């Protein structure tokens, strides 16, 4: 559909006719041609100003019409497109302390450490979040924003895969991770503030107490879902052999209190399948409904009449030159 953004400029179209109609022509005050004669007399031949040729008038009129049309900003408005009505703003906080190096997980029939398992499951979770904004926080003795909230899920996934155990220290600063998430989420609408925190230990570092951090998050309307990750002691291992795990240090009660204080949920993951199921559940919990937005693409077309006006003016100049050469 064609439309004009400034249609009121069309009132300028009759302006040249008004000037031509009411503007008085210049008066010739002296002879246009002086011809001396042999006998000493002279003859003056005056020429009255004539009107421009019809072709010149048509070209000038068309040039003005196209210039006014270009100034009115014509645009082409495309068919309405419905944008996705669902989306999420999520921050993921992942523990990369020294205890995440414990090899008590089985992935593809081989024993792996906890962080490798988290990367595998969380990587799939990230890649399926088309239309969502995700951010990534990693924490050990200190907490860092690895990726701010972004639609670039590929970059978030790559930064997660590049994360190594111990980059943020060997201890676990859960309170600082929550505090950093609060700082980054306070600029978002209340219903969009969600943090998913995964750890395999108890808070033993940092300057902010996790309970105080959770109270602050609750006051800001931030929902925190917590995941306690790690195997159980003497659980079945690879090929039926028993493995000893170090899961007694996980502060399940503290993580559950954080979730309850903010209106979130607490989860316990002991193996690959349980972790997959948890992130599937979180996928549903964190989903938010939005009113469907409609977008109509618009393309500016002012350059078409402007180009036409330039061509008409060039033709006008050429016609004047040809008319002058023919005289």
Describe the structure.
The chain is an alpha/beta fold. The chain contains 9 helices and 17 strands. It has helices spanning 15-22, 54-71, 114-127, 153-162, 174-185, 210-219, 252-262, 272-285, 303-326; strands spanning 2-4, 33-36, 42-45, 74-77, 81-82, 89-95, 105-107, 110-112, 133-139, 143-150, 194-199, 223-229, 235-236, 242-243, 266-269, 294-295, 298-300. Helix 2 packs antiparallel against helix 9 and helix 3 packs parallel to helix 8. It starts with a strand and ends with a helix.
Short descriptors:
327 residues, alpha/beta, 3-stranded antiparallel sheet
Can you describe this structure in just a few lines?
With 327 residues, the chain is α/β, with parallel strands linked by helices.
What topology does this entry show?
Layout: E1 2-4, H1 15-22, E2 33-36, E3 42-45, H2 54-71, E4 74-77, E5 81-82, E6 89-95, E7 105-107, E8 110-112, H3 114-127, E9 133-139, E10 143-150, H4 153-162, H5 174-185, E11 194-199, H6 210-219, E12 223-229, E13 235-236, E14 242-243, H7 252-262, E15 266-269, H8 272-285, E16 294-295, E17 298-300, H9 303-326
Parallel strand pairs: 6-9, 6-11, 11-12, 12-15
Antiparallel strand pairs: 1-4, 2-3, 4-17, 5-16, 7-8, 9-10, 13-14
